[in-house]
Amino acid sequence: MKTAKADKRPATGFIPNPKVKLLDQVREVIRLKHYSIRTEQAYVQWIKRFIFFHQKRHPRDMGANEVEAFLTDLAVRQQVSGSTQSQAMNALVFLYREVLRLPLGDFSERVQAKRPARLPVVLTKQEVQKLLAAVPVGTYQMMVRLLYGTGMRLMECVRLRIKDMLFEENQVVIRDGKGFKDRITMMPASLKAELNHHLQRLKMLHEQDRADGYGETWLPFALSRKYPEAAREWAWQYAFPAARLSRDPRSGKTRRHHASETGLQRAVKDAVRLAGITKPASCHTLRHSFATQLLEAGYDIRTVQELLGHSSVETTQIYTHVMQKPGLGVKSPLDT
Fold first, then answer.
1. Is 125 a catalytic site residue?
2. Residue 153 is a catalytic residue
3. Dihedrals φ, ψ of 238, to 5°?
4. Is 203 a catalytic site residue?
5. How many CB atoms lie within 10 A of CB 83?
6. Mean pLDDT of 215-220
7. pTM exceeding the 0.70 threshold for the entire prediction
8. Fewer CB within 10 Å: N-end or C-end of the chain?
């Protein structure tokens, strides 16, 4: 399970309605802070587990000791990963800080789940080509090539909007990436023609949706209120939309959401197997391969850091450990 990063933004002055159930208060604050639906689902589940762990006591009647006991149980008895324990802690800190507005203290004495230091899985150029050839021609293959060619994360790819594909500038703008940051990466020249053709087909689909009384997409933050017509505009549509219209679980509106990330993950998994690749490769492996191969080609590590959206160059430096030319091409004294 992926770690949900602790919120670094200041606490809001918003106080949820005390007359509604606790979990509904949690959802209210999460939506006010514009968290994703996945973060909402994860936080609610962890808070539920915390309450049931303590025999359904109300969190207001508990505190740091009970939180520490829950987190320790996750590490010792359930043997969860470090990232899973961190996600649980972030959910409970959010509950006490943002919803209940109660001090929680620190957890310096809790048992910390182990975080093994692992090197990223990286594919060679030949392995990447085998993988790409094993993905059926179509939207998924285009998305897999885009992951490898831009260094995007899985969700950054499926959430890509048409307005953020800058063909004249040969750039792709990634909005609200990890850490709520925007960044720019390159658009692969070999994909431009295919992407253009893809968008032409999508525009016809969007026009048909509008003719049928739909054609609306989800907009982040308060944009739907500020620009009421923007949700139906072509530029705001997803570059990789779902095949069918669906009901938004929050607003209840019928919209065309982005493509399912699980479908893309399954396509990559199947391609890895068909290509005979023995490494445990996934969609994120293509991002690792993008970074490593840029460094091997001699690009500056700061440039790679910006393309990946890393806050610190230390995060990017891990790829120097898995390069085919370790030490940035330094020769062994035995070979000189």
1. no
2. yes
3. -70, 140
4. no
5. 14
6. 89
7. yes
8. C
